[in-house]
Fold this protein.
Amino acid sequence: MSSPSSRGVKEAVARGIARRYRSERVFRALGFGALLVGLGFLAFFFYTLIGNSYTAFQQTRIRLDVALDAAVIDPDATRDPEKLRGADYQRLAREALNALFPDVTARADRRELYALLSSGAGIELQQLVMNEPAAIGETRTLWLLADDDVDVLVKGHAPRDVPEAERRVGDKQLGWLTTLEDRGLVELRFNRYFFTRGDSRDPELAGIWGATVGSFFMLLVTLALSFPLGVATAIYLEEFAPRNRWTDLIEVNINNLAAVPSIVFGLLGLALFINVFGLPRSAPVVGGLVLSLMTLPVIIIASRAALTAVPPSIREAALGLGASKMQMVLHHVLPLAMPGMLTGTIIGMARALGESAPLLMIGMVAFIVDVPDSPFSSATALPVQVYLWADSPERAFVERTSAAIVVLLVFLLLMNAAAILLRKRFERRY
Amino acid sequence: MSLAADRKSNDVSEVATEAAAAPSAQTAPPAPVEEGYRTVGDFTSATPVMQARKVDVFYGDNHAIQRVNLDIGRNEVIALIGPSGCGKSTFIRCLNRMNDTIESARITGDITLDGENIYSRSMDVVMLRARVGMVFQKPNPFPKSVYDNVAYGPRIHGLARDRGGLDEMVQTSLERAGLWTEVKDRLEEPGTGLSGGQQQRLCIARTIAVNPDVILMDEPCSALDPIATARIEDLIDELKQNYAIAIVTHSMQQAARVSQRTAYFHLGKLIEVGDTDDIFTNPRHKLTEDYITGRFG
């Protein structure tokens, strides 16, 4: 074979050149198209999510002049907190509403009228009196919580111009509501209960705080267990363990564990932690243990990758100076690998935060009203709360489901941002 | 003696051709070392610090070094030269047991430091590396401050009693490495921010801060420009007053400039050892002659 003449080379290149550029253009167009499709889906997701959720951050309230009647709250004037707590505050709210519609007298009508108010109205009055006993006997102008059916109507999530049978709110109630609205006594106010309360059967009283605290305790347990264990395992496997069949087997199994469906870990948690060890059901500590099992392989793999990325020259430098292996690891390798390890940990934790399936198995799907005060008290978690609300029939839970997802996403974004910041902050050149 | 040397040298060249002709036989079990292979020249030193006797190194099935005998003498620089893959780096990495970090590496034979076998049970590897320091091919300062780089060795070995003593050690080491005037105002800046030549001198300062008996240098100038190289060579020349130095180099000029003795390695065998002047002016072995006259390597 003789080498082609320079003219031959030129011709051959010229023949192929258009095709080469064309395939490059096609590839770029395909890539760009894929990116656009992805971004489109993301935009649609955020649009529907935010469109559905933003109304959950507001709540309908009705302005009432409530007479805090001493005869109802504290007839014996003892000011005993126990007595004050047990008084019928809902009655005060109802009387205040009745005062606006004095012509509603029939028992059935009155019951319908009172249904405009949430049972939370009485709780709000109770809290006011408990905090400020001096208010007894006064008349206060208050914005009290409306029922969720009213809330849905006011927000326009349910139609008003359909036959009564297709509405959750009766004709009379609708009339009263319209009157209240015309008088400017109905307003959408910031929904602080959503951020301060636990779950509730009444959507207007249901909040995300209980689930948030539950998730927090769970992640705390997960972090406390899986970070030290994961990092120690990674260091041992990467720096100290001999390379033989056993360590190969362990390595393969760790990689496999990372791919095990999370619900399997839930079953393991149920069988081991609850049935064998007798830990409490629905408790964040069990959730944290289960999620640790799930997060450990992720942290080990990320930590090992971070350790491998530390250049051997640094190790040699330390060993060459007479550092022991432990000193080499602690003084030089670990500081350099730490950002990568932390990033892996936070990514693993973010995955744990979004996990719901294993928690269903260990009873964290229970309906729990109280905000948990320790990792051992019953709790639910953010993704499980989303699942619970999505399953609830009340229309008002739709927006709360979306809002809970938004809260969950905000936490995930914060954690990922922290991972990026940590990496940027502690990354060192070598 | 010369007659014996001639006979041995024939053996060596035979072995060499064999090994070169059979690169595919890597997976075969290590071939027995031929009787009669013997280094040309005098491998002993009048004032030895380290002595290697019948050292063989295997990486798995690969026989990297065969029956090497060599002394490292006090207050002298010995240069190890030879073509790539001849085992000269492997050899000096045996001297401070850096090969221990390679799992497949297996070492037989005796290496002594002041008469004490460094591979014996009683020799602690941490102690050994404190006494036999090493400077690597690529400058590898820790990603810490200049000060911490130099202070690291004294710190882990507990050599300084207080901060003042440590400061003094750092300064002396940097001065000896000829780096003090350049870095005295930037001791807290990262060592990785220095130039390549400065980094290598920092690594030398870091090594001598522990005050070792022997300094091993594995091609310390291969990543440096000629000016930085010249500075390091001057430095090596000064350092030999206090330390025994073994330097691996690919540059024969460098070997000729800095060393008093030279050892020529070829395919895992130590072919010839002698005074540097003799080796470069009057090589006795054919392979040595071919190498230093640039016929291969």
